[in-house]
Amino acid sequence: MERFNELINEILASNSLIKMVFSGLRKKSLPFKKVSIRPVIIQGLVYYQAEYHFDKKVTHENLDDEEFYNLCQDLLLNNFKQVNIFSISADYQILASKPEKPKIIKKDPSKTLECLEHNQNKKYIIPDGKPCDFLIRLGVMQKNGQVVPKYYAKFRQINRFLEIVSDVLEYLPNSSNSTDNKKPIKIIDFGCGKAYLTFALYYYLKLTLNRNVEIIGLDLKTDVINFCNEIANDLNYDKLKFQLGDIAEYNDAASADMVVTLHACDTATDYALIKAVNWKASVILSVPCCQHELFSQIKNDINDSLLKYGILKERFTAILTDGMRALKLEEYGYDISMIEFTSLEHTSKNIMIRGVKTDKKNMKSAEEFIKLKEYWNINPTIDQL
Prior knowledge:
Rossmann fold; 2 domains; seven-stranded mixed beta sheet
């Protein structure tokens, strides 16, 4: 613990902390599953805001230096086996199965320090007022960097997506900001459409963070693919390519480190997830839509009195479909989170399935998947895994 204590003291002395995440429970009885800590400024003073993640809620606590130090000690000794620390000068991964002798791995810094003011105006990864080449070409931003008013919701959506990507960077291979002698991070965006988010992904990873990436956007519309390739070529986005193709039949990639599928309709989402798992993708970001497949299959005598109402059946079917997908991904070794992702194209708010690859399959999820299949008399496409 001595080196860990020294590290916390160094962070306190230098005010260099960006974010700290405690994960990997020592005991399942703990009410919260993860704790993240970041610095904030309240009335001109620096505090550390601890965010406790429970199953159905998130709570916050503001700490002074001594309280922050003591909490870090307690969380590592008694509650969690892993800590990821992001600071201005370096990233640290602390593996502490034996808390008295933690293993500390130092990496190049992967995050930048944002304004710490509590209750600050929203600070975006791609800021309003600074010209961004792809946003200008796509009509979201004017040449002077000001966002076109009618596209401001789209602008917020793009930045929300990049925030989510930022949170999973640590799980991608070669995630440091050096591109020397490293294989590229391979990313596929299934059903990319006009590719606002695909371009944003390239801009953020390649141009902002200097990651070595290769990104492919796939879509069924020829005019869209031609349009996107033209912009990519004009902007010299040389590692961003767009291809014409169907998700279910796509076989051009032998592997991918990240698979993105935003609003792939109905079972197209399942085929994208199946490919991601078969490729052993480190990260999956999926926002399903139009979950129609189970609507005609679902049948349960106990619940028929509720399912006779079409709108209730439709909404429940969507929840069941995504729940079954999550269980199947957990079975194959993915840590799954369901998070809210704002979308204009389909509904005001959608659920994103965020999956991070782990080394252990979850057989309890496999059993729960089978029980739900039998209970609802369904045969979802995701079961082809």
